[in-house]
C-alpha cells in the first residue's frame, strides 16, 4: 500500500475549523474540539496537520494531572522539566509565546478527571500564550466539557468527524492501493468498512494480499465474491465481499 495522505471530507471540515480559530476575534478563545466515533481518522488527520504546522502533539493518559501535562509538554519542547509546577509553567509559557506553538491533545477525555484540573491548566496556557489548542475526543466529550463553563467558553470551533463517504473511500482506494479496483469493488470496501477510514486501510491491505497471491494487478467484485476482507468482533462474523446477483 502506498504511503500517502488522503484528503477526505473530514479533513476539509477540520481545516475549515482551524482557519476559523486562527482568524478568531477573541484571542483567548483559541481552543478547538474534534470529536467522533473511533476509526474515523481524527488522530491521523489532526496529526498530519500538526506535523505540517509544527504543532506539539500530546496523547493524554488516564493518570494525567496538571503537572504531568506540563512535564510531557516540556519534554517535547526541550524545556527543563524540573522544579515546581509554577516554575515549569513559567518556563513553558515563555517558550510557547516565543514560538507560538499550537498544541494538540489526543484522548482529551483523560484531561477531565478531578474537576478537569489538567484541562484547566491547558486552558490557562492557551489563554496566556494566545495559541491554538486542538482537543481530540470521543462522541460524548462535548457534553462533558460543557459542564466546565470556563473551558467551554474558550472553544471557538467544534468539528464532528463522521463516516467516510463513498467518494472518500474511492479516493483512498485510488491513492493508496497498488492494485486497481473496479468501482463496484470500491463500493464494497465502503460497505464492509462502514466508512471507518482505519478499517478502509485494513480492507485495502487485504485486497492487495489476495491479489498478490493470485498474481493479479486489478480486481473486480467477481474476483473476490465471498472473500472475507474484515471481521466484525462484536458479532464474531467475517465481513465478506458480496456480488450483486441478477434477477
Q: What does this molecule look like?
A:
The chain has helices at 9-22, 42-53, 66-77, 85-99, 113-129, 141-146, 149-152, 166-176, 183-193, 197-214, 221-224; strands spanning 31-36, 56-59, 103-106, 133-137, 155-161, 180-181, 218-219, 228-232, 237-240. Helix 5 (113-129) links the parallel strand 3 and strand 4 (133-137). The strands form 3 sheets. Strands 2-3-4-1-5 form a 5-stranded parallel sheet, with helices on both faces. A two-stranded parallel ribbon has the order 6-7. With 247 residues, it is of the alpha/beta class. The model has no long low-confidence stretch (mean pLDDT 93). Helix 1 (9-22) packs across helix 2 (42-53). It is built from 11 helices and 9 strands. The chain folds into 2 domains: 9-161, 3-Layer(aba) Sandwich (Rossmann fold); 166-240, Helicase, Ruva Protein, domain 3.
Summarize the entry for a quick read.
This protein is of the alpha/beta class. The chain is 50% helix and 16% strand. The chain has helices at 9-22, 42-53, 66-77, 85-99, 113-129, 141-146, 149-152, 166-176, 183-193, 197-214, 221-224, and strands spanning 31-36, 56-59, 103-106, 133-137, 155-161, 180-181, 218-219, 228-232, 237-240.
